[in-house]
Amino acid sequence: MSNRTPGWGLEFYDCVVNNDLARLETLVEQNKIDLDAKFAHVRKKNHLDLSPIHLVAYKGYTGMLQYLKAGQDLYIL
């Protein structure tokens, strides 16, 4: 069972967009997020040549919401 709080994915994304590294670190620790696994998943599924932050810039906010609504998790640093 996961200790993740509801809606933490969007909060995580907001922290990245707002460059709130302190809150980002807290979310990672509280929700036991394995960033390396998330990054690898995104690279394999979408764009092997793009880093996670470039993927966010490429996909944009709307694309990010569609990705999350599809039941996929995307977490960036």
> Helix amount, in percent?
55-70%
Q: What order do the SSEs take from the amino end to the carboxyl end, as H and E? A: HHHH
Q: How many strands in all? A: 0
Please compute the radius of gyration using only Cα atoms: 12 Å
From the N-terminal CA to the C-terminal CA, the straight-line distance is: 25 Å
Structure, explained:
This protein has helices at residues 8-17, 21-31, 35-45, 52-69. It is an all-alpha fold and 77 residues long. It has one domain (8-69). The longest helix is centred in the last third of the chain and has 18 residues, at 52-69. The termini are far apart. 13% of the residues are buried. The model has no long low-confidence stretch (mean pLDDT 69).
In short:
By secondary structure, this protein is mainly alpha-helical.
Write the layout of secondary structure elements.
Blueprint (H helix, E strand, L loop, with lengths): L7 H10 L3 H11 L3 H11 L6 H18 L8
Helix pairs in contact: 1-2
Defining key terms:
65% helix, 77 residues, mainly alpha
